[in-house]
Every structure is written in C-alpha cells, then in structure tokens.
Fold:
Amino acid sequence: MWEHFHHEADIGIRGRGATLESAFEQGAVGLTAVITNPDSVKPGQQIRIRCSAPDLELLFADWLNALIFEMSSRRMLFSRFQVEIQGNELIAVAWGEPVDRARHQPAVEVKGATYTALSVGPVDGGRSWQAQAVVDV
Structure:
C-alpha cells in the first residue's frame, strides 16, 4: 500500500508493507503516482539501482533520489520495483518505460526527496513497515 499525505507546497509519500523492502517498493510506487497513474506505466524495461547510506531514513531518501535521477536522465517512468536491503546498502531493480506524454500525462516533475518528515520504521505493533518522505515538486 502507498499513499500521499498533505504537506504545504510539496507532496509527502508513504510506503507501507509487510517487510522493510516492500515499504521501500511501495514508496517508489507512491513517487511515480505523484507524476502519473502507476497503472499506466508498462514494466517493459529494467534498470538496476544501488545506493548506500548510514541509516534507513537516509537510505530511503537516497533510494527516492536515485529513482528521480533515473527518471530524469533516461526520460522514463517506473511502475514495478524489487528492493533488497543488506545492512546499509540497497540493491534494486526498477521496471518501466519511456515517458509517453499523451498516455502518461505527467502532472508534475519531482525535483528531489527532502529530509522533511523523513522516517522509516516498524508500525502496527511491529507487524509492518513504513517509509515516508516529502518530495519537492
């Protein structure tokens, strides 16, 4: 599950899942949903992403910023994600396709993930994980 949350002029994204990795994956779907409907993005091409950070919060921000960089430099959108986290390192695959302005109708350009409201941790009494951040649009 992913959702947006209200935050002044920017947009908050929150990913939730049964595992830490699934929370990061759902956060990435929420990032795509800021731009377009993720269901409209065909997962035809894959790219690999690696990043590392000293803690989980910074790792989530780095993950989102790596996706934003890939979207911008490759002119792609992503709809499917597979994340593996080992210690302070994230290894992921993102599937997507080149932007089709007529079909995707991108709403905004995401400039970057911020440290505002940045948090990662267990929720629901430890039964699931949540990762959230505010992105600058």
Notes: Residues 56-74 form the longest helix (19 residues). The chain has a mean pLDDT of 95.
